[in-house]
Amino acid sequence: TESDFMCANQSYGFMFFFVVLRYAHGDLSYSVQEELKRGSVIGNIAKDLGLDVGRLSARKARIDLDGGDRQFCGINLRSGELFVAERIDREEHCADKPSCVLKFDLLLENPLELHRVSLQVQDINDNSPAFPKDVIKLDIRESAVKGARYRINAAQDADIGKNSVESYTLQDNAHFVFNIQTTSAGSKYVELVLEKELDREEQQEMKLLLTAVDGGSPHRSGTVVIHVIVLDANDNAPVFTESVYTAKLPENSPLKAVVIVVSASDADEGLNGDVTYEFSRLSDKSQKLFSLDQKTGEIIVNGAIDYEEGSRYEVIVEAKDGYGLSSEAKVIIDITDVNDNAPVIYLKSLTNPTPESVSPGTEVGIINVQDRDSENNKQVRCSIQQGVPFKLVPSIKNYYSLVTTEQLDRERVSDYNITITATDEGSPPLSSSKTVQLSVADINDNPPVFEEQSYSAYVTENNKPGSTLCSVTARDPDWRQNGTVIYSLLPGEVNGAPVSSYLSVNGDTGMIHAVRSFDYEQFRSFKVHVMARDNGSPPLSSNVTVSVFVSDVNDNSPQILYPTPEGNSFMTELVPKAAHGGSLVSKVIAVDADSGQNAWLSYQIVKSTDPGLFTIGLHSGEIRTQRDISESDNMKQNLIVSVKDNGQPPLSATCAMYLLISDNLAEVPELKDISYDEKNSKLTSYLIIALVSVSTIFLTFIIIVMGVRFCRRRKPRLLFDGAVAIPSAYLPPNYADVDGTGTLRSTYNYDAYLTTGSRTSDFKFVSSYNDNTLPADQTLKKSLTDFSEAFGDCDSSPEVGTVALLQVANYVF
Ligand SMILES: *[C@@H]1O[C@H](CO)[C@@H](O)[C@H](O)[C@H]1NC(C)=O
Ligand SMILES: *[C@@H]1O[C@H](CO)[C@@H](O)[C@H](O)[C@H]1NC(C)=O
Ligand SMILES: *[C@@H]1O[C@H](CO)[C@@H](O)[C@H](O)[C@H]1NC(C)=O
């Protein structure tokens, strides 16, 4: 797959060109004595690399030892000092290698940075020279000549250089001197050289103390006792077939497997020719792994051979004959690697949880892969499972960055289990995998979204304040408070008042309640905006329109415009005596503020003086004679008309209509019977005196006006049509559907009288209404201008007087 990469050393250089790496070239090298106390400071890494000490902690600076889990060194994140974290024993790590270097990585993140640190471990003289055995037995023939040499295995000192064995001292004696030799294989041994011949009869045995001293300061020493036994017969030492044997041994070889067979031959016969083998000088490690068959010289596997623990062993084998004469050979055993270690994946760092806002290509983790094998067995390929928005980018050495490949979205996937697999190149290859759990942290990136584009609420008028109209719902997929939705009304005005005086919204549930009772006659619908906001910071919001429709309820009774129901002046209709059946007499005009059926009015005569005489149009309100008027009919006719709307339940209003069957108001002796109002009689009688005086003058003017009018011979025009002129301002604003009921457009041919309701004085205000074709709307629009126009046709001065007089009369009456 794409994300497969070679982890091997060879590709590092190649990677550096392509991967965004912050590789600092500064390799650091420190030197430290072994066996230092814990906490001893080795050096200051921050200073040496020029790093900002304050950022070490944030950058997660740490020390990673190659392929091991022990931490010999630590880094003080506050001071940047490298210190000893665990006992460092040079002999453990490097045995007899002349130079002992521990290598580790200094790792920094953000950006990822790697520095190689080498730690040179210096030897201290902490080991004494030691001989393989405490006692060395030497059998020497008394016939041995001066100059004969006897080999003795050298003392070993685990320290190196100056601290290893430097000199030997042999106890003073009469027969031997001491000599140091080096074999062809490079190992040292010491010899005793016979200086003065032995005499068995004189001395059968002797014990000599040999001391080895190292060059350290202070000196350390080790001793061995050389036990010399003087023999009678001649002897030859055994001789190995080779001075150095080499063997290759694959790791994990089974127990008892033969590594190599050494063999030495002895020229002597019998007991003197019997050669036995044994290890001389054997490290503790080797001792556990190998054993030697004393008789056959076979070196046998005696423990678990692990290449990773040690790849080369050197052992010295000694061959001895029956009399104790011996010689040595070196055996070098090279262990060959077997692919027995699967790669190990270490998660070195992980940004968990990772915010969903990180841009593609952001490093969220660092992974390290190690394989303890060598060569091909150590080359590792890493891959990441398909279908996750992450990839592995090879970084420094065997480090990989875990990088996002696309924008994360917590609302879609909130957790990832990322499986990383590492496979080595051995045969058969070994692999291992590791699952990294990564959570995505929320960012407030989704505004609340209303479930609907707009909401409508229907409410009948006169609702109770606090009643629920509807509810809005918005969803926000973010986490916790980032997804908690709070509702509120956006400020605004309805009919000039703030929306909050009409509606309220429950912030938690989105329920919308009416704050007041609505009146359909005031407004039929209005719109408000509701906002949904989440609780994130910064918060996100969206808004939606809620339309409220108020529906009508029959809560307005019909309103009668004509005849005017109240006031102390009322209209009396004059019915000509000659009126035929079906003549239009008057009209009841009513309106209803409701709408539709609630405003559909019907008229009915509920009570009348003569039930057979008048009839009313059910919907027109027109009052007509039902038959011809006869002489016998009562002159004064009263009608009570009821106006009813069509609502459920219906509402109604009534009015009284006064009709006078007469051709002339003057014929009527008194109208007082018509009047209901008796209370004002006293007042009016006081006014009579004033009236009589004024009316005389007034009538004179009227006669003048009439005279002027007639002299003009013009077609008479409407002078005053108060009976039907309904000022438009009188009607409610939404008064639109009164056609046929609220207007008067039929042919009228009667006189209108303004009566005062006074007992004794009547005033006839005359105009012949001949303009039959006058359309209704014009009638309705008649205004004062029309009057002045009408008067204006005559001389100006009397007209002014007339109007003034009219006003006086109105005032008086
Ligand atoms: C990830 O693994 C954990 C534990 O193995 C499991 O509980 C979880 O459901 C897994 N998540 C996904 C997204 O597969
Ligand atoms: C909400 O989003 C903000 C950033 O927009 C983030 O810092 C915070 O952690 C989020 N809160 C939760 C509860 O996830
Ligand atoms: C309401 O939403 C519209 C778009 O949906 C936006 O343009 C407007 O600014 C919002 N109004 C307020 C007051 O947030």
Automatic annotation (TrEMBL):
GO terms of molecular function = calcium ion binding
Q: Where are the transmembrane segments?
A: 686-708
Start and end residues of each Cadherin domain? 75-131, 132-240, 241-345, 355-450, 451-560, 575-671
Note whether Glycoprotein occurs among the keywords: yes
State the annotated membrane topology for this chain: Single-pass type I membrane protein
Tell me where in or outside the cell this protein is found: Cell membrane
Keywords from UniProt, A to Z, are:
Calcium, Cell adhesion, Cell membrane, Glycoprotein, Membrane, Repeat, Signal, Transmembrane, Transmembrane helix
Any one biological process term the GO annotation gives: homophilic cell adhesion via plasma membrane adhesion molecules
**Location (main, coarse):** membrane
CDD domains associated with the record: Cadherin_repeat (cd11304)
Give the protein's recorded name.
Cadherin domain-containing protein
Say which species the protein is native to: Sphaeramia orbicularis (orbiculate cardinalfish)
